C-alpha cells in the first residue's frame, strides 16, 4: 500500500488472507479477506464473487485502512485459529499530510465490486487493473489526511513489517517506542478423564517480553466451563481443570499483562477428548532433559487395564519430573497416572482399573525445572494385553 501527497511517499507492506477447503465433500471455493471485504471467490471455477461481509474501508468520506501483515501458512485436518494482533507502537517516520493519494492492493476489480460498493463516495477514484501483478489490482482513493486512519494488524503476532499508524499525520513526541512484542510459545497436553467428565489441560508456555502477570485460562466455547490461573513466571507450566465439559471445545489462552493491558496473547482451540492440538510448539531448549530410551508394555488382563513403563532420561539437562498417563479415549474405561522425580525407572506401573479392549492414549511427559513439558512420547493402544 502507498500513501503520497505528491512530494512524499510512504509504503506500508500488506498481505491478503485466504482459506481454501481441502475436503472432497466441500466446495473448494476460497474464502478471502481483501481490503476489509470478506468474500467467496468462485471466479477460477467460472462462478461469481459472493460477499460475506461488506467493505468498511470507506464511510462518508472517511478512509479507515486496516493492513494485514506477517506471513502465515497452515494446512491440516483440524481447526486452525487465525488471530489478529494490532501493535502497541506508533511510527516515528514522517507521514504525508494534506491531500493524499492512497493505492491499495486488491483482487477485486472495479466492475466486480468497488464501483458498486463505494462508487458514490467522493474519495473513490477507481481501480487500476493488474497494477501489482496479474489479478492484483490497485484500488485508488484521494482523501485528506485528517480523514484517514491507518492501522497495521499482524496475523498470529504483532505486525513486524510496519508499525501501527493512528492516522497518516506524523506522531507526537509522546508516542511509545516501536520495540516488537515477543511471541508466546505454548503447548497444551490434553489429559482429560473422559469417564469422570473432567477436562484437564496441562499448559506449558514461554514468553520473553516484559509483563506484570501471566494469565492462563481454559474457556469452553459451548458451556460455562472455565478456569483461570495467574502466574508470575515467563516460563512455566500449569494444570487447568474446568471440572466439567468432556468432549467440548475449549479456548486455551496464555495472556501477558502489563499495567493492566494485554501486551501479548496466544490461544489454541482444542476439544477435551485426550487428543493434543496440532498447533503445539516445541518448548525444549539446548539445556533441556530428553528421553533417551523407553518401553511401554500392555499387561492388561481380563477387565483390568495395566501398563508398565521403562524409561531413561538424559542424566544432564533441566529436569523436574516424569509423568506417565493411561487415558481412556472414549470414556468407556478408567484413566490413571503416576509421577516420578527419577531420571530412570523400570517396571513403573500405571493401573487405572477397568476398560480392557477399549482405546487408550498412553503418554510419557518430561518436565523441566520450570514445569514446562520439554519432551514426550505418546502411543495409541487398545488395552488388550498386546504391546503397542
UniProtKB/TrEMBL annotation:
<feature type="compositionally biased region" description="Basic and acidic residues">
    <location>
        <begin position="186"/>
        <end position="197"/>
    </location>
</feature>
<feature type="region of interest" description="Disordered">
    <location>
        <begin position="331"/>
        <end position="352"/>
    </location>
</feature>
<feature type="region of interest" description="Disordered">
    <location>
        <begin position="153"/>
        <end position="198"/>
    </location>
</feature>
<protein>
    <submittedName>
        <fullName>PKD domain-containing protein</fullName>
    </submittedName>
</protein>
Amino acid at each position: 500500500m502507498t500513501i503520497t501527497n505528491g512530494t512524499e511517499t510512504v509504503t506500508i507492506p500488506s498481505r491478503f488472507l485466504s482459506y481454501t477447503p481441502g475436503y472432497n465433500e466441500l466446495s473448494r471455493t476460497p474464502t478471502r479477506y481483501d481490503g476489509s471485504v470478506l468474500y467467496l471467490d468462485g471466479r477460477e471455477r467460472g462462478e461469481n464473487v459472493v460477499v460475506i461481509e461488506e467493505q468498511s474501508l470507506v464511510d462518508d468520506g472517511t478512509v479507515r485502512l486496516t493492513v494485514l501483515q506477517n506471513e502465515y501458512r497452515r494446512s491440516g485436518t483440524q481447526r486452525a485459529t487465525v488471530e489478529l494482533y494490532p501493535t502497541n507502537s506508533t511510527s516515528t517516520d514522517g507521514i504525508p499530510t494534506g491531500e493524499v493519494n492512497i493505492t491499495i492492493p486488491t483482487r477485486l476489480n472495479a466492475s466486480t465490486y468497488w464501483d458498486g460498493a463505494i462508487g458514490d463516495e467522493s474519495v473513490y477514484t477507481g481501480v487500476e487493473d493488474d497494477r501489482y501483478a496479474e489479478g492484483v489490482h490497485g484500488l485508488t482513493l484521494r482523501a485528506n489526511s485528517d480523514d484517514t486512519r491507518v492501522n497495521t494488524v499482524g496475523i498470529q503476532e504483532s505486525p513486524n513489517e510496519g508499525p501501527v499508524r493512528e492516522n497518516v499525520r506524523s506522531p507526537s513526541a509522546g508516542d511509545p517506542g516501536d520495540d516488537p512484542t515477543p511471541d508466546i510459545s505454548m503447548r497444551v497436553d490434553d489429559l482429560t478423564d473422559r469417564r469422570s467428565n473432567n477436562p484437564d489441560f496441562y499448559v506449558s508456555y514461554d514468553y520473553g517480553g516484559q509483563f506484570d502477570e501471566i494469565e492462563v485460562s481454559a474457556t469452553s466455547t459451548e458451556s460455562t466451563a472455565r478456569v483461570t490461573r495467574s502466574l508470575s513466571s515467563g516460563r512455566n507450566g500449569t494444570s487447568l481443570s474446568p471440572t466439567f465439559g468432556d468432549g467440548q471445545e475449549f479456548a486455551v489462552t496464555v495472556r501477558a499483562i502489563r499495567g493492566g493491558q494485554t501486551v501479548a496473547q496466544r490461544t489454541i482451540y482444542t476439544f477435551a477428548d485426550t487428543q493434543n492440538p496440532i498447533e503445539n510448539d516445541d518448548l525444549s531448549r539446548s539445556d533441556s532433559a530428553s528421553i533417551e530410551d523407553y518401553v511401554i508394555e500392555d499387561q492388561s488382563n481380563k477387565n483390568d487395564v495395566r501398563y508398565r513403563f521403562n524409561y531413561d532420561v538424559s542424566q544432564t539437562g533441566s529436569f523436574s519430573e516424569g509423568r506417565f498417563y493411561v487415558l481412556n479415549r472414549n470414556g468407556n474405561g478408567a484413566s490413571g497416572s503416576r509421577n516420578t522425580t527419577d531420571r530412570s525407572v523400570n517396571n513403573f506401573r500405571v493401573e487405572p482399573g477397568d476398560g480392557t479392549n477399549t482405546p487408550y492414549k498412553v503418554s510419557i511427559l518430561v518436565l523441566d525445572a520450570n514445569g514446562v513439558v520439554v519432551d514426550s512420547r505418546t502411543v495409541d493402544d487398545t488395552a488388550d494385553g498386546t504391546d503397542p
